[in-house]
Structures are given as C-alpha cells and as structure tokens.
Design a protein that fits this description.
Largest sheet: 7 strands, mixed
Number of strands: 13
CATH topology of the largest domain: Aspartate Aminotransferase, domain 2
CATH class of the largest domain: Alpha Beta
Strand order of the largest sheet: 4-10-9-8-7-5-6
CATH architecture of the largest domain: 3-Layer(aba) Sandwich
Order of helices and strands: HEEEHHEHEHEHEHEHEEHHHEEHEH
Structural class: alpha/beta
Shape: globular
Number of domains: 2
Strand content: 5-15%
Number of helices: 13
Distance between the termini: 19 Å
C-alpha cells in the first residue's frame, strides 16, 4: 500500500517531536500505521489525503472546531479581504472591538473581553486574571484545560491525578515542582468532592475552573452548587467552553444551563477553525488584567477577529446550533438502531451536538480500532466521538449509516466466532506514548 501520509509521517517524526503539534491528531489515536495522517484539501466535510483519496469526516471536524464546515466560503471571503488590507500593523484592528462587543451582547452577564489564539493560552490568561483578583494561588478544576504547567502539575502528587479528567498517562515530566500541592481535581456531578477541597485547603482556593459539560449532563443542579460554593469561599468560577461553546446553542453552553460564571473561555468553533480564542468576564475581575502583564504580538492579528465576526454572523443567521442538535439526535438514534440490528452492545452519550458512543466490551479498544479501519475502507474518517457540522445533510448521513451497518455487522460476526479482530496494524491508544521510529 502506497500510503503517502504514513511515509511523510515517518520523515516528520525525525524532525518534529511526535510528528505533529497536537496529540488529538496523531495517527496512533486513530489507526496506527494506516491513518492517512495528512490532508491535501478539506472542503465542506470532505477531506482529500495525499493519495488524492476523498473521505467524509466523521472523526471530529477539525477537533470540533469547524461547525460551519471546512473552507467556508463566507468566512474565507471575509478573511481574504482582511488579508488584502493587511493582517498586521503597528496600529490595532477595529475588528477586535467589534468581536468583543458581539461576545458581550451574546453573554449579558459579561462586561469585558481579552483575546488570544489558542485554547490553552486562553485558559492561562483566565487563570492569571482570576489569581490576580482573588489574591489566592490554589486552583480546583474539573475537566480538560490544556498542556500548561498549572494544569499538568495536578500530576505532581500522583501521576494519575488527570487520568479521570480526559487523557490518562500524561505523567508529570518537565512540570515545575513549584506548583506542587496547589492544583486539585474534583469530580463532575460530585459536589462533595469540591467541598472536601475547600475544607482541606482552608480559604486558599482562589480559582475554580471547569467544563460545564463534556460527556455527562449536570445532575441535581450541580453547576449552580459549584457557583454557590465558589462564591461562598471567595473563589472565581471559570467555565472552560473551548470545546462546548457555540455547539449546542448560540454562545456558551452555560447559557442553556442558566448558570453564569465569573469568567468564561472560548475558542475552536468561535472562528470555525481560524486561530482565535477569547476570555470574557465581569468588569471588576477582568480589570485585573491591567495589574498583571498579559501581552502578545500575534494576539493582535486581524484575521482571527474577522473570522470570529463572520462565523458568529453566519451562525445566528442560519440558526446553525439548532441544526447541529437535530443532526446529533438523529445520529445518536441511528447508532442505537444499528447496534440493535446487528446485535452488538454500545452506550451512547455526550451533547447532542457532540455525540459519542462506546463499544461495551472488554476489548473495546480493539473493536474501536477495527471500526476505524473498516470505515476508512468505506470512505469515512470515523471514530466513536463526533462533532456535528452544518454541512452534514440527509444524503451524507444515509451514506454514513450504510457504512456503519456494514461494519457493525462484521463486528457481530467476529464476536460470534470469538476470534481476534483482523487488524492490519497495532491497536489505537488514547494516551500519551512515546513515538518510536
């Protein structure tokens, strides 16, 4: 097999640590040794690899960022126009103000905005501002918040502290020990776990940062309880909406749950894949950005602001989030029907706009790898977690489920024979492992 993507990856691994910049895009996370790895073009939900083979993307749509589809014509047109006028200058781009104003209009509780380019940067900015305001260094968190030391240092006490948050096996190599005993994880939908942290740390927790939802819906008024507990203990509550923002509804997911934080963070879908992230918050807190040094040349780049404005305009005009939810519900239902038809066991969860399923078997990683392998043969980049996009339509979804039923049937037949799955490479992994070559 002349897989040009894998050939390039082997070369890349010799000069780029890990082969690329994002763990979530490593081929080992999908189909080791066989994943196309690189694209030559991506338009709508069609991705063309280096072998010029086309695939429908049902594997996350740019790690959940492209809810309007790849290479959206309206956003590209606006960005190209801005590029012609100059993306960088000694002066500031007026679109920066326009995007800040728009985010405040959407989130009535917020008063001020700071921008950056990536989700990890936005998290770090929010943490810095919140610490400056609260004058307390310790942090309680729940969920995934990036690669920076403040987050990764949760593993200094126990290398497995982050295992239950999203990615197991991250360890603590290279993390400054100065953060030790200052970052504490609590469990989603378990308010007692947060109460224990506040009680043990005795008024030293200044920041509570969490994802309002990733896989499981909040129960028993959990988000409101977190907000009340944070306020009672003088901690700033930050909702990390890098992944959830603008998927389920127009704005932060917290608007749907009707719980307003002190600060919130956005990225990914905000620019439909263009580099732009934002931190919004209440004025009395955000003003502390002036009392600590937070600054970067590339945060002033014009194109991210333009992409954000164009994306928000199109989302609102087309009521994009409503369609994303409807499509997601249809896909969740389709998975259940396909599983029942082919007599295999799966569980379905996640937001409607960010649905996922899991093979309920002890060898689920093996089955998952086989699923990706066989779906790839049928023209789909596929895994068990999806991000809905506006460009999915009934015709594409029908093709997807035709393929799913074929693969689910194969899984059932192999399970009945109680034999190993015929994988053409190693089993995928979902953790950080050293790439060897």
């Amino acid at each position: 097999m002349n897989n040009l993507g894998q050939k390039l990856l082997k070369k890349a691994q010799k000069i780029i640590p890990g082969g690329n910049q994002l763990l979530s895009k490593r081929s080992e996370m999908f189909l080791p040794g066989l994943w196309p790895t690189y694209y030559s073009s991506s338009v709508g939900c069609l991705v063309k690899d280096l072998n010029k083979k086309k695939y429908y993307d049902f594997a996350g749509m740019g790690v959940t960022s492209c809810i309007l589809g790849y290479a959206d014509k309206d956003i590209n047109r606006a960005v190209i126009n801005g590029l012609k006028k100059g993306s960088m200058s000694t002066l500031n781009a007026p679109e920066e103000f326009d995007l800040a104003k728009k985010l405040i209009e959407i989130h009535k509780w917020a008063d001020m905005v700071r921008f950056s380019k990536s989700g990890g940067e936005a998290c770090l900015i929010a943490i810095r501002i919140a610490r400056a305001f609260s004058n307390k260094e310790k942090i309680a968190f729940c969920g995934y918040h990036g690669w920076h030391d403040w987050y990764m240092s949760a593993n200094l006490e126990n290398k497995k502290s982050l295992d239950n948050q999203l990615l197991p096996g991250l360890g603590n190599k290279g993390i400054s020990k100065s953060f030790k005993n200052s970052i504490f994880a609590f469990e989603y939908n378990n308010i007692e776990s947060l109460k224990k942290i506040f009680k043990k740390q005795k008024n030293k927790i200044g920041v509570v940062i969490m994802e309002p939802m990733r896989f499981t819906r909040p129960k028993d008024n959990f988000l409101k309880k977190v907000k009340d507990l944070s306020k009672k203990n003088g901690a700033i509550l930050i909702f990390d909406e890098i992944t959830s923002g603008f998927h389920e509804n127009y704005g932060g997911l917290h608007l749907k749950f009707k719980v307003s934080p002190d600060m919130a963070i956005f990225g990914k879908a905000l620019g439909n894949g263009y580099p732009i992230s934002a931190v919004i918050g209440k004025k009395n807190i955000m003003d502390f950005a002036q009392r600590t040094f937070i600054s970067s040349t590339m945060w002033t780049d014009r194109l991210g602001f333009i992409a954000g404005l164009s994306a928000l305009k199109k989302m609102k005009k087309l009521k994009v989030q409503k369609k994303l939810v409807n499509i997601g519900r249809k896909i969740k239902k389709g998975w259940v029907l396909a599983a029942n038809k082919n007599k295999i066991k799966i569980s379905v969860g996640g937001l409607d706009s960010l649905p996922n399923f899991r093979f309920e078997y002890d060898n689920n990683k093996e089955i998952s790898t086989f699923f990706t392998q066989e779906m790839l043969k049928l023209g789909f980049l596929a895994k068990e977690a999806l991000a809905m996009t506006y460009v999915y339509n009934d015709k594409i979804i029908k093709k997807y489920f035709t393929a799913v039923n074929v693969v689910f049937n194969k899984i059932n037949l192999i399970n009945q024979k109680k034999i190993k799955f015929p994988l053409k490479g190693p089993i995928k992994h979902s953790t950080l492992k050293r790439i060897t070559f």
